[in-house]
Amino acid sequence: MHTSQLDSNALNTLESKDHEPTVYLNGAFLPLSEAKVPVLDRGFIFGDGIYEVVPVYARRLFRWPEHLARLKRSLAKIRIDNPYSDSQWLALIESLIQQHPWSEQFVYLHITRGVAKRDHAFPKASKPTVFAMTSALQAVPQHVRREGVAAITLDDQRWLHCDIKSISLLGNVLARQAAVDADAAECIQFRDGQMTEGSSSNIWLVRHGEVLGAPVDHRILEGIRVGLMETLCHGCGIGFRNAAISREELFQADELLLTSATKEVLAITKVDHKPVGEGKPGPVYHRLYEAYQAAIAANGANPQAIR
Ligand SMILES: Cc1ncc(COP(=O)(O)O)c(C=O)c1O
Predict the structure, then answer these.
(1) Exposed (0-12), middle (13-18) or buried (19+): which is 261, by Cβ within 10 Å?
(2) How many other CB atoms are found less than 10 A from the CB of residue 94?
């Protein structure tokens, strides 16, 4: 039996038994409904914490070293001591993956400054809260891949530390809801007239066969797919550049793309209700999507890829 068939059978069995996912909380694996955090946790009170989302293909983590490096950067930027060693992180995540039936998953990691009396300043002593869960990674439906998605443009109203993968996501939540309210899948934000990013994705413009992304600075989250796009472009002989991108340039793009851990690379074919280029996923999208799938296949084929 093919593994993906095995996985979907296993999933059906689990669903029919109303099986609950297992999650990790502060050193223990337990059913989701039993995982409880005190209301004075600073994640709940202040959104004082960071997170990561790591895709898993064929039960192997994809780009784990890069995700771990970003997790450490986010922790350092908000001055939370990394609670675990690299091998402890890997062991807990691998255990979580193995406790679930899906071949493709996405692992969510969440670290807060812990529980303390409510006061804005850091508590003198607190122990970080560490939560982790995994979910089935649903492939983007074929008709969405064929047609692409709609986006709207929006002023970026978030704070100026978007490089931190903070759990304080209100700005991103409101931005995504504005897109949903306009029947779009994502928004494309602009700060001071320059493109930044989506509510939960990085955005790419294709012009004359070249891929352009926003400058990587405090105004955007450096997606793990930012480095990957550069690598894939080089591998495909496609030009790649970071540049300031205006609204006018966005509307003149031949193609627009978004990238994220769960959407991989996806074509944006409508922006503010107007077609992008020819209004369908273009040749650069197709080449990068193929290259992305090849990178996933290579990850599965190479045991060294999981570290
Ligand atoms: C604001 C924002 N930008 C970019 C990304 C893409 O990052 P990655 O490629 O690591 O998923 C995300 C992912 O959630 C995000 O929330």
Answers:
(1) buried
(2) 17
Q: Which tokens in the block code for residue 128? A: 């970080």
All CATH 3.30.470.10 domain ranges of the chain, comma separated, are 3-136
Helices (H), the chain: 3-16, 42-46, 64-77, 86-98, 142-147, 170-181, 224-236, 247-251, 283-301
Q: Check if 165 is active-site.
A: yes
Tell which residue, 39, 47, 262, 260, has the closest CA to residue 164. Answer: 47
Distance 72 CA to ligand 1 centre (A): 16
Q: Please give the average pLDDT of every successive group of 10 residues along the chain, which has 307 residues.
A: 40 52 98 98 98 98 98 98 98 98 98 98 96 98 98 98 98 98 98 98 98 98 98 98 98 98 98 98 98 94 46
Nearest Cα residue to atom 5 of ligand 1: 201
* Nearest CA-CA partner of 170 in 182, 183, 157: 157
Assign domain 3-136 one CATH number from 2.60.40.1180, 3.30.470.10, 3.30.565.10, 3.20.20.70: 3.30.470.10
What CATH number does the domain located at 142-298 have? 3.20.10.10
Cβ-contact 104, 56 below 8 angstroms = yes
pTM: 0.92
Q: Please work out whether the CB of residue 260 comes within 6 Å of at least one atom of ligand 1.
A: yes
| Residue at 95: amino acid letter | S
**How far apart, in whole angstroms, are the C-alpha atoms of residue 75 and residue 128?**
11
Ligand 1 pocket mutation pick from 108, 200, 218, 288 by most atoms within 8 angstroms of CB: 200
- Measured in Å, residue 266 CA sits from the centre of ligand 1 at 13
How far, in Å, is the centroid of ligand 1 from the Cα of 229?
A: 13
